[in-house]
Write a structure and sequence with these properties.
Layout lengths: L2 E7 L3 E8 L2 E8 L5 H15 L4 H6 L1 E8 L1 H8 L5 E6 L5 H4 L24 E4 L2 E2 L5 E3 L3 H13 L4 E5 L8 H13 L4 E4 H4 L5 H32 L5 E4 L5 E3 H5 L8 H17 L4 E6 L4 E6 L6 E2 L3 E3 L2 E3 L3 E2 L2 E3 L5 E6 L2 E8 L18 H8 L7 E2 L4 E2 L5 H12 L3 H26 L8 E5 L3 H12 L3 E4 L6 H6 L5 E11 L5 H21 L7 E10 L7 E9 L11 H17 L9 E11 L21 E6 L4 E8 L8 E3 L2 E4 L4 E4 L3 E5 L5 E5 L5
Parallel strand pairs: 1-4, 4-11, 5-6, 5-9, 9-10, 13-24, 24-25, 31-33
Antiparallel strand pairs: 1-2, 2-3, 7-8, 11-12, 13-14, 14-19, 15-18, 16-17, 20-21, 22-23, 25-36, 26-29, 27-28, 27-29, 30-31, 32-35, 33-34, 35-36
Helix pairs in contact: 1-8, 3-8, 5-6, 11-13, 12-13, 13-14
Length: 694
């Protein structure tokens, strides 16, 4: 059995998990924003060195390289994507502005709309019209398209989104617009709505296509550079990419719709959390991932993290492709601390890896959360950082916090502590928002914390939220990278089809599912999987007439892609029965006497692959480990001498009571006062609350 490598490219660090049999090796190195593939190659070289191999020999023995990335997420968080233009049907220029009248806080009269990806001057229209049945009502005005291209060229547009009305029924006009744009604007990236999200309604499709256009140049240029480098270095197989849906697929598949990698890094962590949670006996998991740039929150219920399509709002933009539900905040180790209108704020802007926090000694000038942790003694300049990749420096850190303190009227240490409090409050509030939206009480969950910074805040957040138990896997620093090795190859696509469920065109349904199956088979074959290895879930989107939202559920599960015998005259009745059951479970009622309608068909396909083995239990005898050292630290109750333990010295059975700090190779675990930590038989950490909630 060869090596399998999972990679997660973050805004600050690039994480690696190397799987060789049951052995897992972790590594982190700084991301390289100017060319993120360089950071990947640096890490692969280090893994090869650890294994005692040359890079070419190591890559030749890799069965799979799978990776997720936060490139798309960080682009939206920091709003530094491509200069994007939109070409749409005459009369629909302001679709992005209307947002269906949606407002995140309906009572906040001062809430500004999200920053415009496509300002009105870059949203242009052309005369054309296709009707709902695919017929052409008004021919495309090609001269108008060329005029739009000239206007966009004058604005230095780098990426063009094309979203015409009913292009998902008849894509002829949209394809022709794309051809003209390619002729008039050579080198520009083009996103076509009938490929990105081939379904109604028009706002969902337009928004998703515009976001795709905004992030695509960064994503595709990164993927192309990475594939080129790993191939040249000797990797013989297809590069697999983590998708937001929780599955992985080839780079060639992703290129058709780069929006699929939005939240792909966090999705890897969620899939890994579900895998670990079930293995440890905790099927209901609150997943929190704090990295260098962002803080990601998700929920696993009954051991599953299903992908949802539809009204997915990411960074205040609707993205309609299937996504594992992840809430992302601009709160990471690199989040910049500043004073705004007399109030201390943290993020969303990040120092990233270039120049990074001040304590990295790489030219950073603005104080960050990592700098605050150094001021508080949670991190230390005397300890190795990021696996010994470099050491932190106190030079300039206290002076930077003193500048904040001067504006607030207290000391530099107080400023650092308040930054810790603010970012913790921001993250806890984010958890409350996502759990309340699902009708979940966090008190009923077990928190699983990962990422380079997640374990430093986990217990204090759990205390805020009333959670009594926190899991920190030994692999938590690169957990999203490890999660990519849990995910199966997956393709999840849909086609629009609107009809009453009791009056279906059976041949049309067969044709749609057959086309989706042929497309899935092509990409799986390219990835060296056989069609009979594929598990296919044939699904429908259904709703009652007049409802805005559709429910998605399985009608049939098959092994293989070619058996459509279930699509027969009885399908409508079967769909109605299944829909009523699902509607009752979701909303508590059905509408007697109303016939639901199908709004689309989906095909979710996957291939089962081997996953890392996870064990549980506390059979090892309990012991009190030796304290490695002490240092002055503030864990929320003022500065005091605090016990420091080294993760490499801890063994199953060890028990540590807070306040204490554990220094792992790539992360720091804080056992806050009122908590204790136990090392389980697998070497993973479990923290439990020992003082009752007040």
């Amino acid at each position: 059995m060869g090596y399998r490598v999972g990679i997660d490219i973050g805004g600050t660090f690039t994480d690696f998990a190397l799987l060789s049999g049951s052995k897992v090796t972790l590594h982190k190195n700084l991301s390289t924003p100017q060319d993120r593939s360089l950071g990947v190659m640096t890490g692969l070289e280090r893994l090869a060195e650890i294994e005692g191999l040359s890079l070419s020999d190591f890559l030749a023995q890799c069965d799979a390289i799978v990776h997720g990335t936060t490139v798309a997420d960080n682009t939206l968080i920091e709003m530094n994507g491509a200069i994007t233009g939109l070409i749409t049907t005459e009369g629909f220029r302001d679709e992005m502005e209307y947002r269906r009248g949606f407002k995140e806080s309906i009572w906040d009269v001062r809430l500004e709309p999200p920053p415009q990806i496509t300002p009105r001057r870059r949203r242009l229209t052309v005369p054309e019209r296709i009707l709902h049945d695919g017929s052409v009502y008004k021919a495309l005005d090609e001269d108008a398209v060329r005029a739009c291209c000239q206007r966009l060229k004058k604005q230095n547009v780098e990426s063009v989104a094309i979203s015409l009305i009913f292009s998902f029924v008849n894509s002829a006009h949209e394809k022709r617009v794309a051809q003209i744009v390619a002729e008039e604007m050579p080198g520009v990236h083009i996103s076509k709505s009938h490929e990105v999200l081939p379904r109604a309604p028009e706002y969902d499709r337009t928004s998703t296509t515009v976001v795709n256009a905004y992030v695509a140049p960064r994503v595709t240029s990164y993927l192309e550079a990475l594939v080129s480098r790993v191939k040249a270095a000797g990797y013989p197989n297809q590069l697999m990419v983590m998708q937001a849906s929780g599955g992985v697929m080839t780079k060639e598949y992703i290129e058709g719709s780069p929006i699929r990698v939005l939240a792909s890094g966090p999705a890897g962590g969620v899939i890994g959390s579900a895998h670990v949670g079930v293995a440890k006996g905790y099927p209901n998991i609150l997943c929190v991932d704090m990295g260098g740039t962002s803080y990601d929150i998700s929920v696993v219920l009954k051991g599953a993290a299903p992908a949802e399509a539809g009204w997915n709002m990411h960074h205040r933009y609707l993205v309609g492709v299937p996504m594992v539900k992840v809430e992302t905040l601009g709160a990471g180790g690199g989040s910049i601390c500043h004073v705004h209108n007399g109030a201390l704020q943290v993020g969303p802007a990040s120092a990233g890896s270039e120049p990074g926090p001040i304590c990295y000694g790489r030219g950073g000038q603005q104080p960050t959360i990592t700098d605050a942790l150094l001021m508080l003694g949670i991190l230390s300049a005397d300890s190795d950082f990021a696996g010994g990749g470099f050491s932190l420096s106190k030079v300039g850190v206290e002076a930077a916090f003193q500048k904040l303190a001067d504006q607030m009227g207290y000391s530099a240490e107080d400023a650092a502590f308040d930054c810790w409090r603010v970012v913790n409050a921001n993250m806890s509030q984010g958890v409350r928002r996502i759990t309340a939206g699902k009708g979940i009480d966090p008190k009923d969950m077990v928190m699983l914390a990962y990422g380079g910074n997640g374990p430093a805040f986990a217990a204090v957040q759990a205390e805020d939220l009333g959670i009594e138990r926190v899991l920190v896997p030994k692999a938590s620093p690169t957990f999203s990278a490890l999660g990519t090795l849990v995910a199966d190859p997956r393709i999840d696509e849909e086609r629009s089809y609107v009809a009453p469920a009791d009056d279906l065109d059976i041949e049309k349904l067969k044709s749609l599912w057959s086309d989706l199956g042929a497309r899935a088979e092509k990409y799986f074959t390219d990835a060296n999987f056989q069609a009979d290895q594929v598990t296919a879930h044939y699904q429908v989107n259904m709703r009652y007439p007049g409802q805005n939202w559709a429910l998605t559920f399985d009608l049939q599960e098959n092994k293989g892609l070619r058996d459509l015998s279930f699509v027969d005259a009885a399908l409508g009745a079967k769909a109605i029965e299944a829909f009523n059951e699902r509607h009752t479970a979701e909303y508590g009622h059905v509408r007697e006497g109303e016939v639901p309608e199908i709004t689309g068909v989906r095909l979710a396909t996957s291939v089962a692959t081997a996953s890392p083995v996870v064990t549980k239990g506390f059979a090892a005898p309990k012991a009190k480990p030796k304290v490695a050292k002490t240092r002055r630290a503030n864990l929320g109750h003022g500065y005091q001498q605090t016990d420091i333990f080294l993760g490499r010295d801890l063994v199953p059975g060890d028990e540590i009571s807070g306040p204490a700090i554990i220094e792992e190779s790539f992360t720091t675990i804080v056992v806050y006062p009122g908590w204790k930590l136990n090392v389980d038989d697998a070497g993973d950490y479990e923290m439990t609350r020992v003082q009752p909630q007040s």
